[in-house]
Amino acid sequence: MRTLSVLLIGSLTFLLLIGCSDKQKEAARLEQEMKDREAAADTMAGGEITLEDSLAGLELVADASAIPDEAAPEPVPMPPATRREGYTVQVASCENEEYARHLVGVYANRGYDAFVTTITYENQTYYRVRIGNFEGFSEARTLQEELVDRFSEQPWIDRLDQ
């Protein structure tokens, strides 16, 4: 039993030493990397850098036609135009149109008919992500409670004319 304890302690000590050795090697590597960076910075500060030096290794584009066109952004779904009165459940309001589009997709994947409205306040455009177009407050309240129960979110009810 005593022999087993000595072997176990010896093995653990050996493993600990190996682990420390790896950490020392990593620290030495990082230290050398920092020294190399400092040396490069000193060289750049002390000498004159030519245009050729700064362009070395860069691949230049012949003309603008070689740059790929960015895909046009998808249009943001807008609220149903049939009714401008009633209630809706607002799940987010953000300054980034792309993020608002992303949220509409998230709620569409969850099975909801989400849309975006915009409002400008103090020269800033806000994108409101909303779900539903309800005549009565109680219908909107039911959806709000469902979203809280299913997704632990804090949506709020708003009038469609706002």
What would your notes on this structure say?
This protein is α+β, with helices and mostly antiparallel strands and 162 residues long. It has two domains: 2-45; 87-159, 2-Layer Sandwich (Alpha-Beta Plaits), CATH 3.30.70.1070. It is 48% helix and 19% strand. The protein is built from four helices and four strands. The protein has helices at residues 2-46, 51-55, 97-109, 137-151, and strands spanning 87-94, 114-121, 124-134, 156-159. It has a four-stranded antiparallel sheet. A hairpin with a 2-residue loop joins strand 2 (114-121) and strand 3. The longest helix is centred in the N-terminal third of the chain and has 45 residues, at 2-46. The radius of gyration is 31 Å and the shape is elongated. 12% of the residues are buried.
